């Protein structure tokens, strides 16, 4: 790709990176070009025991659990997946620009509710955890929701330096609860499908994120306003099954690879998105918000 | 709604508003309660000549044009609506977490492209306009995309004090273009359906916003990656028609009302969302981003 002089000038003006000598200006590479040039060592495959396959009639949603942040909820979800809790249940809510929610639509009706089997019936709230012990990759920009933002492993997080928490970005997986902060058990789950509702951060236990297949959730017909719960049960989306990748033979698992957020490739790709310089962009933003950063995922040979 | 003492204490701690006397603490009201208590004078009905009805087989999307920001594009769109340019065309792109795009899928093929009739074939870029002369309601919080953010009329905007521009929030209507900044004519349009792509601000001409019916656009099946253009033309969503409300007899127009963003009701509702204090929220954010603020819209008797 050849840059036109005016755009290259813009790139140099706006770049926060050290400039090279004038006779050898840095060539702008798009995030995609940077990612395509990445070494294999920049990628990892999430642990199968933290990987959920949500099988819908229309395809498969792949979810990664976050036991570093919500060990009790992740543990309960693993138990319920092994015991086929969600198989035959449904996505029973889709609220525009907010969330889809799934599990047992009759969970609040003790006469109809499906048994949670050997899963725990009460869990502590897991809204945040100590920052200490986490490998945190900070972003260069500030937002108004958290003193610091960045990534821990495959997860977008906020932090105040003492405590760190998962952020409600597009694709985040949360554990629905009632008014009591410790009323979630991981049976009723939601996925963010709209503009990041960061006001929910540290108010609900987040327990993972969707890695692949968001389009299957985001395009579900919305339920009636204001909350999006389907009044007509026929409009719910059936869940064929939710299973742990670790329950399948290795050769039946999807060989998903995720770009490491602590790699130089990821840092460079974020920077390329902060300051876009190509034939299309006339003005580079010089900024990016946490929830505007996609996590690169590809399907290939499984890697460690 | 009775507040529990701990939550009320939190509300008072976090409130940036003057506190009342200790024996008469301010009762928290939700945004919905504030809006429901609003006087009729806080609402207005957008001008029919700035209101577009996009009629799909599944229902109607109502769009407001923003001639204060993009007079040339709004003018061309009015001309094309009057001349039925979009009737029988389609939504030919849906990219997950980004946009839907509609118009003439063959626009780039001069042999197949539909005639634009008497609409102008070239327009200036309308990325921003002077701040002077606009009634700007500022938000209390900063974001990283613009020095100031707020509302002008029904539109979310960024501003640097000299220039003001429409922001790429959920529901924003933009005019697709090629690489040249003045290559949009308003025939090919997009609506934001994902996390606000604010990096596009001041890079494309925005020309309005969806007021009602977003769920009809956001739930459209996504097209193939990476861009979401349908390879199979049968997957496109037909546009029955796009018409100006002003072309219809008054009694056939939808009596839509929009909350005035310069009203105390709107300011109070934003504040209630910045610091939520109810049985559910355990921690008020003390912050809100421009694109997290919904514009209250209702259907009722038309008002001035």
TrEMBL record, chains A, B:
The keyword Translocase does not apply. InterPro entries: Cyclophilin-like_dom_sf (IPR029000), Cyclophilin-type_PPIase_dom (IPR002130), E_coli_cyclophilin_A-like (IPR044665). It comes from the Bacteria. Its EC number is 5.2.1.8. Keywords: Isomerase, Rotamase, Signal. Residues 59-246 form the PPIase cyclophilin-type domain. Pfam families: Pro_isomerase. Gene3D superfamilies: Cyclophilin-like (2.40.100.10). Residues 1-21 form the signal peptide. One of its GO terms (molecular function) is peptidyl-prolyl cis-trans isomerase activity. PANTHER family: PEPTIDYL-PROLYL CIS-TRANS ISOMERASE CYP38, CHLOROPLASTIC (PTHR43246). This is peptidylprolyl isomerase. It comes from Stenotrophomonas humi.
